[in-house]
Design brief:
With 167 residues, the chain is α+β, with helices and mostly antiparallel strands. Helices cover 44% and strands 15% of the residues.
Length: 167
């Protein structure tokens, strides 16, 4: 009887070793598939970025500011254009890129939640204290030495100033 239990143990251990081998083989195949997929995905990723497709590059822009910070810029003299985002994209983005005649321009979007305290029904642009500033329409402010020195309220006045700047 002892022989039967020994044979039974040998058979059980052979089955366990066979199962262990199968499990290891399956794990190696799964890792191999993931390795091959990762390799080809990385290879394709490198070729698309080398083709000059820079659509996904992060661009840091320094021209959009908050109204509350508009008197604290590093330049001695500059302009701040305050408007909504749609007007910026459809009307003024091209002007700011091409027609500034070497003047520094910043823009502040009234759609930005941080600029909401400065939005009012009527404009109050000629202020000494920034907390009194109210914007109701597209406005252009000239800042010199940290103070508002010129103001232009409304699209027509702002466009006229752009024309005057480029003469």
């Amino acid at each position: 009887m002892k022989k039967k239990t020994k044979n039974k143990k040998n058979v059980n251990s052979e089955i366990e070793v066979g199962n262990l081998f199968k499990i290891i083989l399956v794990i190696m195949i799964v890792f191999g598939i993931f390795y091959i997929l990762t390799y080809y995905m990385q290879k394709n990723k490198k070729t698309t970025t080398n083709n000059g497709n820079n659509d996904h590059l992060a661009i840091i822009q320094y021209d959009e500011i908050l109204i509350g910070n508009m008197l604290n810029q590093s330049e001695e003299e500059y302009y701040v254009l305050i408007l909504n985002e749609e007007d910026y994209r459809t009307k003024y983005k091209n002007y700011l890129a091409n027609y500034t005649n070497n003047n520094k321009f910043y823009y502040a979007l009234i759609d930005n939640a941080f600029n909401k305290p400065y939005i009012g029904e009527t404009s109050n642009l000629n202020v000494d204290n920034l907390s009194d500033l109210k914007i109701s329409d597209t406005s252009l402010l000239k800042i010199s030495a940290g103070k508002i020195v010129e103001t232009y309220d409304g699209n027509s006045a702002v466009m006229q100033k752009f024309i005057d700047i480029n003469k």
